């Protein structure tokens, strides 16, 4: 059906990359800023944005501003950080492994990070390295360990490693690690888990920032690598260095995200896909747009998590899975 | 323009002894010529192309481009001199045709530099040169095999290199597209003076396209020279263990090879 392929395949002539970049950043940036400003307004006490930013009321008397900035904004910003970290890691894994189903969850990297964080909490590890405390450190160790296993699997035979092997390996690893996590949970009383860690944004800022700096060098080379590592090399890309930067950055940010929020599934897979539907395939648009949209998306999910059964709170991972699962299935049907 | 001397390569660990995939290969490719690289499966054609492209460092020997050893060039400098067309290209993501061609501009841009109007123009020229200008806004994934290969060649042209290395460019294509790509490559050579090294299993493509051929067996060059003198029944038997009839075909205007039988 060449005619049909024509109709489906045709896209409108587009503006230059510079213009598309400006529009993408403006659009998704506005969405992210709106989420950061509006989400803190929702909660047990009603507050008004106008009052929050009313400079005529001294801050000490401005209850709305105090609730906004002290009680709610840190958590919203934490959710934004976690959402963008997971979404960007997803983008990077998908491009590097040339597999649209790769993500921190499907590769077992999130589960590795969770296991690390759980061990640190359960065994009450208390040390720090360069200002980063035990839980995030253990979490990075877990994410890097899981990634090493999966990556070794993907490069064991240089040619012909099927997407199937990689994903089955990742899913298996994920199931295995989840079982170990359940086992550790069974041994230890675990009610305190991530709640304690949630407010430790400060301790993961440094690794998060390193990961982001790594991501910032990647967008164009991801375009070339996603078409083929050999052809990327022939075009002047340092493929090995790209892989190292990408994998280290993705494990750092995934580890940081998991140590803040616990395992949060599906963000790394559905956010990049939805973003690509809007901005196309170019990673110079996909990566920043996923960071902004991932942040806004998780702010939204976290809002649902803390309001739907208030005063109790759901773990945000349950919300992302309930929203993400069906969206992911829809994406599968759409591409199949 | 491209000169390789005494190249050797082995996949065995350095220091360990192992079968040599490339064994003492020397090549001299002059500007504006099309050189065919022929040999059975596993003869080292692809490995040799990867070494020439600078993607794989040889165990011994060296490759010079315009007198510069390739290991002294940066990756980008090298990519501005040599472009590679792989056998097949799949894109995981939905890039448009013009996106795919613009990626060829990578070695000409700074790390964070975006393509400008000049790059767009080069990309459009490359599409025009490969007869794919009408496909510019199509999704790469929706193209036919022959269209994809022409677009990939356009990307290699946009790279504005002096030399094109093509690894079995027609193997994945049906007969019609094979002829189309052959004609395109010949036109690029005559009209643009493109220098090419083409590995192929298709002896008739080699006869139609290549001025010179290099015959590779078990990593060694067993014969090389002009296609007219080197593509003979004897060399084909030595290369593939196949008896073949080689005749000049007046309609095609070049030698044609008809394989007859495998001698027992």
The radius of gyration over CA of chain A amounts to 21 Å
SSE series of chain A: HHHHHEEHHHHHHHHHH
- The CATH homologous superfamily name of chain A equals ABC transporter involved in vitamin B12 uptake, BtuC
Could you give me the name of the CATH homologous superfamily of the largest domain in chain B?
Answer: P-loop containing nucleotide triphosphate hydrolases
Helical proportion of chain A, percent range: over 70%
Number of domains of chain B: 2
Query: What composes the largest sheet of chain A?
Result: 2 strands, antiparallel
Largest interface: A-B, 38 and 44 residues
Helix/strand order of chain B, N-terminal first: EEEHEEHEHHHEHEHEEHHEE
Q: Kindly state the mean pLDDT of chain B as a whole number? A: 92
Assign an overall shape of chain A. globular
The overall average pLDDT of chain A, rounded, is 83
Distance between the termini of chain A: 17 Å
Oligomeric category: heterodimer
Quick tags:
heterodimer; A: ABC transporter involved in vitamin B12 uptake, BtuC; two-stranded antiparallel sheet; B: 264 residues; alpha/beta; Rossmann fold; 2 domains; six-stranded mixed sheet; four-stranded antiparallel sheet; 9 helices; globular
In short:
The complex is a heterodimer of chains A (336) and B (264). Chain A has 336 residues and is mainly alpha-helical.
Folded structure, characterized:
The complex is a heterodimer of chains A (336) and B (264). Chain A has one domain: ABC transporter involved in vitamin B12 uptake, BtuC. Chain A is 73% helix and 1% strand. Chain A has helices at residues 2-9, 17-38, 49-52, 63-96, 109-122, 134-155, 163-187, 193-197, 201-216, 219-227, 229-234, 239-261, 267-279, 283-307, 316-335, and strands at residues 128-129, 132-133. Chain A starts with a helix and ends with a helix. By secondary structure, chain B is α/β, with parallel strands linked by helices. The longest helix of chain B is centred in the last third of the chain and has 18 residues, at 175-192. The model of chain B has no long low-confidence stretch (mean pLDDT 92). The interface between A and B is large, with 38 and 44 residues.
């Amino acid at each position: 059906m060449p005619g049909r392929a024509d109709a489906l395949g045709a896209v409108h002539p587009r503006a230059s990359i510079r213009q598309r970049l400006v529009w993408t950043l403006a659009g998704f940036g506005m969405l992210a800023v709106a989420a950061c400003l509006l989400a803190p307004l929702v909660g047990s006490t009603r507050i008004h944005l106008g009052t929050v930013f009313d400079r005529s009321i001294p801050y000490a008397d401005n209850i709305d501003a105090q609730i906004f900035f002290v009680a709610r904004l840190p958590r919203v910003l934490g959710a934004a950080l976690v959402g963008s970290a997971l979404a960007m890691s997803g983008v990077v894994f998908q491009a590097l492994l040339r597999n649209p189903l790769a993500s921190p969850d499907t590769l077992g990297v999130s589960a590795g990070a969770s296991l690390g964080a759980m061990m640190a909490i359960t065994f009450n590890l208390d040390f720090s390295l360069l200002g980063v405390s035990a839980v995030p450190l253990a979490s990075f160790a877990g994410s890097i360990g899981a990634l090493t296993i999966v990556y070794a699997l993907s490069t064991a035979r240089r040619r012909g490693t099927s997407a199937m092997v990689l994903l089955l390996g990742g899913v298996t690893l994920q199931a295995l690690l989840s079982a170990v996590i359940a086992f550790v949970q069974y041994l230890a009383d675990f009610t305190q888990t991530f709640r304690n860690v949630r407010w430790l944004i400060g301790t993961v800022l440094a690794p998060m920032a390193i990961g982001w700096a790594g991501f910032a060098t990647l967008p164009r080379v991801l375009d070339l690598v996603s078409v083929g590592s050999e052809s990327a090399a022939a075009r002047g890309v340092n493929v090995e260095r790209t892989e190292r930067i990408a994998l280290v950055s993705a494990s750092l940010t995934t580890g940081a995200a998991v140590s803040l929020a616990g395992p949060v599934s599906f963000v790394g897979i559905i956010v990049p896909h939805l973003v690509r539907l809007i901005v196309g395939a170019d990673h110079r648009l996909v990566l920043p747009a996923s960071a902004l949209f991932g942040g806004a998306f998780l702010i939204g999910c976290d809002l649902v998590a803390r309001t739907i059964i208030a005063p109790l709170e759901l773990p945000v991972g349950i919300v992302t899975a309930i929203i993400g699962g069906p969206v992911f299935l829809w994406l599968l049907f759409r591409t199949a | 323009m491209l000169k390789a001397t005494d190249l050797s390569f082995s996949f065995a660990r350095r220091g360990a002894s192992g079968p040599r995939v490339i064994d003492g290969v020397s090549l001299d490719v002059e500007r504006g010529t099309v050189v065919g690289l022929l040999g059975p499966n596993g003869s080292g054609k692809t490995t040799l192309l990867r070494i020439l492209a600078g993607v794989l460092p040889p165990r011994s020997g060296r490759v010079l481009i315009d007198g510069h050893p390739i290991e002294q060039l940066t990756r980008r400098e090298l990519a501005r001199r040599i472009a590679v067309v792989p056998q097949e290209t799949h894109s995981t993501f939905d890039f448009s045709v013009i996106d795919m061609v613009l990626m060829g501009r990578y070695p000409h841009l700074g790390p964070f530099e975006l393509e400008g109007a000049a790059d767009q123009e080069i990309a459009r020229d490359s599409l025009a040169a490969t007869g794919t200008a009408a496909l510019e806004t199509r999704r790469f994934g929706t193209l036919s095999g022959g269209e994809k290969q022409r677009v990939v060649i356009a990307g290699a042209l946009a790279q504005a290199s002096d030399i094109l290395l093509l690894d079995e460019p027609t193997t994945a294509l049906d007969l019609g597209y094979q002829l189309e790509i052959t004609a395109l490559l010949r036109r690029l050579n005559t009209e643009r003076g493109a220098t090419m090294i083409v590995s192929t299993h298709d002896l008739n493509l080699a006869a139609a396209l290549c001025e010179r051929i290099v015959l590779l067996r078990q990593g060694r060059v067993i014969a090389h020279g002009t296609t007219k003198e080197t593509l003979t029944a004897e060399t084909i038997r030595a290369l593939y263990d196949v008896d073949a009839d080689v005749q000049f075909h007046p309609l095609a205007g070049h030698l044609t090879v008809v394989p007859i039988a495998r001698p027992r």
